[in-house]
Specification:
The structure is a single chain. Strands 7, 8, 11, 15, 16, 17 and 18 form a seven-stranded antiparallel sheet that branches. The protein has a three-stranded antiparallel sheet with strand order 12-13-14, with no helix packed on it. The chain has two domains: about 90 residues, no CATH class; about 130 residues, no CATH class. It is built from two helices and 20 strands. α1 packs antiparallel against α2. It starts with a helix and ends with a helix. With about 260 residues, the protein is α+β, with helices and mostly antiparallel strands. It is elongated.
């Protein structure tokens, strides 16, 4: 049986997954705090017909061998934590991180989630929450009757009540040694894993953490032109692998039609 049938099939499956990743990136081009993913592939095992460096009967060492590859497979889908563009919103509770770090939120399971989406609001109790109602950690309490809320670059939150500025708490950021090892939970939320390591928390603008930009949101880091190019490359790679299957089928047809 011609190996190229199965080898090309793995190539088509890989490019189909690649297209799925590109499509998800494009679907989230306007999602605040979204980070694009990149599909990474590895070659499969090789069938060794002759090992490199083997000895011939005459004692000669073969400089090369004969190894036939068996295709490719998906190795990882890695998140790219490059910075997205900043968009001014004018909303007092919108925040963007100008450097490294994640906002911390409390998930319904009690676990801490991490996000770059700083689109926050106050719930009925005055607590600062995400659009899904997840409590921002450490807890920030906005007093009733506040007419103006300001957030400093260091994360300090103050509210103006009847002309008097009162402290409502401070934003604390978290960062990881390997942010690519975080697990995406949807809703622009990530959770820590053994690969990411434990979170290191700190004050915005200090010890390597990014500062807070008030009344701004960090948008998606997806570049439409780059994703369109990746989509074309994936489509062409899928097409050329299908041509390999077609060529192998034609070779089998020729072999089947041989006559004495």
């Amino acid at each position: 049986m011609i190996r190229s049938l199965y080898t090309a099939a793995t190539g088509m499956q890989a490019q189909q997954t690649n297209m799925d990743v590109v499509a998800n990136n494009l679907a989230n081009v306007n999602t605040a705090g979204f980070k694009r993913s990149r599909a990474e592939f590895q070659d499969l095992l090789y069938q060794t017909l002759r090992s490199p460096g083997a000895s011939q009967a005459e004692g000669m060492i073969l400089p090369t061998g004969v190894q036939v590859g068996l295709g490719t497979r998906l190795a990882a889908t890695q998140k790219q934590f490059t910075k997205g563009d900043m968009q001014q919103t004018g909303n007092d509770l919108d925040m963007a991180i100008t450097g490294d770090g994640f906002f911390q939120v409390q998930l319904p399971s009690g676990e801490t989630g991490y996000t770059r989406n700083g689109s926050f609001t106050a719930d009925r109790d005055g607590s600062l929450v995400t659009s899904d109602g997840y409590l921002v950690l450490p807890a920030i309490s906005i007093p009733a009757g506040a007419t103006e809320i300001s957030v400093g670059e260091d994360g300090s939150v103050t509210a103006n009540v009847s002309g008097v500025s009162t402290s409502s708490g401070s934003i604390e950021l978290a960062k990881f040694v390997n942010p690519a090892g975080l697990s995406a939970a949807g809703g622009s939320i990530y959770t820590k894993t053994d690969a990411s390591g434990d979170a290191v928390t700190g004050t915005p603008g200090k010890e390597g953490f990014g500062g807070i930009a008030s009344k701004f949101l960090e948008m998606s880091n997806v570049k439409v032109v780059d994703e369109m190019v990746n989509m074309i490359l994936a489509q062409r790679a899928y097409e050329v692998n299908s041509k390999s299957i077609q060529a192998a089928d034609e070779m089998l047809t020729t072999a089947n039609n041989l006559k004495r």
